[in-house]
What does this fold into?
Amino acid sequence: MSSLRDDARRGLSDIWPAMLAAVPIGLLFGALAAGKGLSPLETMLMSTLVFAGGAQFAAIELWATPAPVSALVFSTLLINARHVLMSASLVPKLQGFSRMQTLVGLYYMADENWALAEKRARTHALTPAYWFGMVVPFVACWIATSTLGAVVGAALGDPRRFGADFAFTALFIALVAAFWKGRVTFWTVAAAGTASALTYRLIGPPWHVLAGALCGLGAAWIAAGGATPEPSKPEPLQR
Amino acid sequence: MTLDAQTLLAILGMAIATYATRIAGLALAGRLDLSPRAQAAFDAIPPAVLIAVIAPSALATGWAETAAAALAALAATRLPLLGVVAVGVVAVVGFRALI
It folds into this structure.
């Protein structure tokens, strides 16, 4: 019984730095959502049901009235495609989880708690108490800050006045830096940016997302072809 | 407190799409063996999508936005997430005033 409480506390103490970092991001998300006309209730629902920072920011960037449902779902699917690999790697480590705990637990698998769980699994068995000790406060924090951001943001008015409309662009540039893997990423970014901007100008939204993403993937495929024997090997040594 | 039907539909669609990617690992676990090239393309999905989303705002809006994006990219090599956002926002306000 006490180990259950210990594991939950361990989860909380591992997640809190990520939680703290998410506070301003959540506020920013809510404010931008309000700027695009989402009500605080709609913002709260999105954060509760979707809980995927990158996809939610992209959705707000694409948002229009009425909501372009298929473009939003498609962009969400593309941005979250990485979760397929993440969960494939995590699932074998969820031995102590019941079927229900696995299904509920995976609903809120995000980059941060996934990475922490993978790290924990190297030295300890992953327990549901640890997982939910991380996930519950992290999710609650994201819902609370994004809803608060939507309430406050609506009162602030036009985000363009403070350059807040550009916050997405800067945030995404920072996120791309976090995914940076050298030469392959460079060609990915160059191809995706060029194709997206051209498609936006010549054909119009929301097709720029698909065109840019596919050209980026193609560029990564081509760029990785020249150097395939090397990069796959040194990786286990670094980690 | 308003809740638009079309907005609710979009949110539910996004939620289902996200959950699908998160439980896909249940079916794939232990069976996934990507070639290094396919792995590289898979790894490139997040940056490719992120850039595809912001390219119109960074490259096809105006010189102020393009210059601010370049400055944010420079900042991204040194600063944490929020530092980059701060640099980008301050830069775009400054460049819009100048240009």
